[in-house]
Amino acid sequence: xxxxxxxxxxxxxxxxxxxxxxxxxxxxxxxxxxxxxxxxxxxxxxxxxxxxxxxxxxxxxxxxxxxxxxxxxxxxxxxxxxxxxxxxxxxxxxxxxxxxxxxxxxxxxxxxxxxxxxxxxxxxxxxxxxxxxxxxxxxxxxxxxxxxxxxxxxxxxxxxxxxxxxxxxxxxxxxxxxxxxxxxxxxxxxxxxxxxxxxxxxxxxxxxxxxxxxxxxxxxxxxxxxxxxxxxxxxxxxxxxxxxxxxxxxxxxxxxxxxxxxxxxxxxxxxxxxxxxxxxxxxxxxxxxxxxxxxxxxxxxxx
Length: 303
Hints:
This protein is of the alpha/beta class. It has helices at 57-62, 65-71, 87-90, 130-136, 153-163, 166-171, 176-181, 183-202, 215-224, 242-248, 257-268, 275-282, 285-288, 295-302; strands spanning 7-10, 21-24, 29-32, 36-39, 51-53, 78-81, 98-104, 107-111, 114-117, 122-127, 144-149. The chain folds into 2 domains: 7-150, NAD(P)-binding Rossmann-like Domain (Rossmann fold); 156-302, N-(1-d-carboxylethyl)-l-norvaline Dehydrogenase, domain 2 (Orthogonal Bundle). β8 and β9 form a beta hairpin.
């Protein structure tokens, strides 16, 4: 990556560690070769220029502080992508070493060693800092839009609100455009977002507009141009969100995490949620009964 050697650190070695990773974009494909793998041993790696923490929110929250501290010891910057703003403090990561970022895209694992980028436009948001430019500055050559911002936290909060919609779409075995094509889906999405915006306002968490996947832009469009979402029912679409991918693999570890997190924030400011809380209660439905047949059935189950 930008002439940097990349080592993946994890508890389990990939099935084919020497096989190149094929990344399929809508208009091209890339081959990533010579990546190394190291087991998570609790020892501090040597000669590291930067640490990239790309764990899912639910995995990052479960990460033990001593393990993280040993892994990231030293002076190298630590980049945290798409995480909660409270996690760096919980992990005791010094402010001068942490760098925040967002990856606004959808990545679907087709098979071992192959990943498809389903979004028409993939955006990477990084903080305006020399450390960030050194690592990510040239990724625009590979089909990514790179945006620099002074403060990534308000954008992280906006993306969190957008991700609240992953669960209702996944419960219906739909992508988000397909969910929004149904009037019941649009009603449900609107209710979820309104609760999210009110919660963030009461919690004093500022928001900032995103270049893609922006919840405020989506809410405005829902209220002013709801008919513009029609016609997506039968369009080919491979933008499967991470919650739906987990359901399809028979895993539910992250199914309700985002919506539950909003409920936790709301409880600290004395706000009672309805729609997001009821979605949390329905998150186990898939393993027991199966997907909802359509957004209408899901909406009726929540009323």
